[in-house]
Design a protein that fits this description.
Layout: E1 2-12, H1 15-32, E2 37-46, E3 52-60, H2 63-73, E4 79-82
Helix pairs in contact: 1-2
Length: 95
């Protein structure tokens, strides 16, 4: 599997919408596509228009597998970029 960053702009109007989408995403990844897609983490962003966007980190067999996962889970999908390296200065801060 390869590592990808997935940008989802203006995907959700409320945190509740985002939580419902997260549940669908986990279910599809874990139960329908466990050999093709693995969700690692997500950073939630406040968009200028008041909606929520995300940057998701996934392991996947291909960008097409990520697109298939997004379609099955009914997720927004703006852009997929391969991650070529990681520079870790310190771990993510606790929220």
């Amino acid at each position: 599997m390869n590592l990808y960053a997935i940008l989802r702009r203006n995907g959700w109007k409320t945190p509740e919408n985002l939580q419902a989408a997260a549940g669908r995403s986990k279910n599809v990844g874990d139960n329908e596509m466990p050999n093709d897609v693995r969700w690692i983490r997500t950073y939630v962003m406040a968009e200028p228009d008041g909606t929520l966007g995300t940057v998701c980190i996934y392991e996947a067999t291909s960008p097409e597998a990520i697109e298939k996962h997004a379609d099955r889970a009914e997720l927004a999908l703006s852009e997929i970029r391969p991650i070529v390296d990681t520079v870790l200065i310190r771990p993510d801060p606790a929220r």
